[in-house]
Amino acid sequence: MHDAMLLAQRGEGAVNPNPLVGALIVKDDDIVAHGWHHRYGDLHAEREAFKEADEKAIDCTGATMYVTLEPCCHQGHQPPCTDAIIEHRIKRVVVGLLDPNPLVAGKGLELLRKAGIEVEVIEDCTDSASTELTDALKMQNRVFRKYITTGMPWVTAKWAMTLDGKIATVTGDSKWITSTASRERVHLYRKNNMAILCGIGTVMADDPMLNVRLKEETMQRLGIMEHEVRQPIRIVADRQARIPMESQLVSTAREIPTIVVYGSSADEEKLQQLRDAGVTLWNCNSLTELIQRAGAEHIDSILLESGGTLSEALLKENLIDEILAFIAPKIIGGKGAKTPVEGDGFCMMSEAIELTDQIVETIGNDVLISGLVKKKKEEQA
């Protein structure tokens, strides 16, 4: 199952809003075929494994299939994987997690059992090794699990700051806080998310492109093909539609999908100019409505690259799920220098946002601290 999970990871950034899934076929204690979901709309992991087995003329009768997520049993872009498992006369299926998708949710396993196939679910096991594996599988598909059960995208806030907690100097200079290696990692995160969200303040200060720019040598080292890089949708929270028409985001809106989220105070003439430039417009009255609209548009994951005002607002609305904090070994000081989270903040330490599942990693000269935002008790209940 661990090997199948590693296979599943290879689809990251390409299968959204579908889940990451890996599958192995084992016969006579040998792995005879591998499969993973390569790209949205392509064959699912199980059918990829059967494709390899068929090409090798391997008879799967009596074999065991290991698959990280419950096989689908409904017609989507691809036919049901349960049909393929039955047709290939698999004897036993070991599943990592039940599929939380209401269209599946145990129905796939029920079909397999009715066909006389032995089914084992790791998630149902209570021993420590199974529990650890289940947790890892849930973490791997955390984006899909939230999106398919709530209709809301997974929101990851990313920022780069100095050792004294600044994201720019007092003059606004921020290029560059972190190392080349850290900035390369950010482009990988951009590739793996369906959208990037920033505020109008970031656009006015930096005129960003918010696209994926990976060096050729990086792509070769990581085994990423150019056609596998999907540019994220750019979303700008801009209540008054102040975004300059000459900005890089507007200028490239016909090449890379760009959305401006505006409020009731926006000028209609400016909105029409943006429409004419190829910008998509969303009228939203709150940040919650913005995130819900993204989910309704089948955006399952958002990388937040904003200043401290928008970050604080999203945190206070419990709309951020994960934090990626790049910390550079630099000190710039400055009472008026910007910080990652601003606004009024919280009055009491007991109100502070906490992280769980933290990972501390060294990247170049920098440190990356990542973790999941611990949701408030009332939200958990």
Description:
A hairpin with a 2-residue loop joins strand 1 (22-27) and strand 2 (30-36). The relative contact order is 0.11. The strands form 2 sheets. Strands 10-9-8-7-11-6-12-14-13 form a 9-stranded mixed β-sheet. The longest helix is centred in the middle third of the chain and has 13 residues, at 128-140. The chain is globular, with a radius of gyration of 23 Å. By secondary structure, the chain is of the alpha/beta class. The protein has helices at residues 2-9, 45-55, 81-87, 107-114, 128-140, 142-150, 180-192, 200-206, 216-222, 248-251, 268-276, 287-296, 308-316, 377-380; strands spanning 22-27, 30-36, 64-69, 92-97, 118-121, 154-162, 195-199, 233-237, 258-262, 280-283, 301-304, 322-328, 355-363, 366-373. It has 14 helices and 14 strands.
What is the topology?
Layout: H1 2-9, E1 22-27, E2 30-36, H2 45-55, E3 64-69, H3 81-87, E4 92-97, H4 107-114, E5 118-121, H5 128-140, H6 142-150, E6 154-162, H7 180-192, E7 195-199, H8 200-206, H9 216-222, E8 233-237, H10 248-251, E9 258-262, H11 268-276, E10 280-283, H12 287-296, E11 301-304, H13 308-316, E12 322-328, E13 355-363, E14 366-373, H14 377-380
Parallel strand pairs: 3-4, 4-5, 6-11, 6-12, 7-8, 7-11, 8-9, 9-10
Antiparallel strand pairs: 1-2, 1-3, 12-14, 13-14
**Overall form:** globular
Order of helices and strands: HEEHEHEHEHHEHEHHEHEHEHEHEEEH
Uncertain ranges = none
Helix content: 25-40%
Number of helices: 14
Largest sheet: 9 strands, mixed
The strand line-up of the biggest sheet is 10-9-8-7-11-6-12-14-13
Mean pLDDT: 93
How large is the share of residues in beta strands? 15-25%
Please state the structural category. alpha/beta
Radius of gyration: 23 Å
What's the total count of β strands? 14
Measured distance between first and last alpha carbons = 32 Å
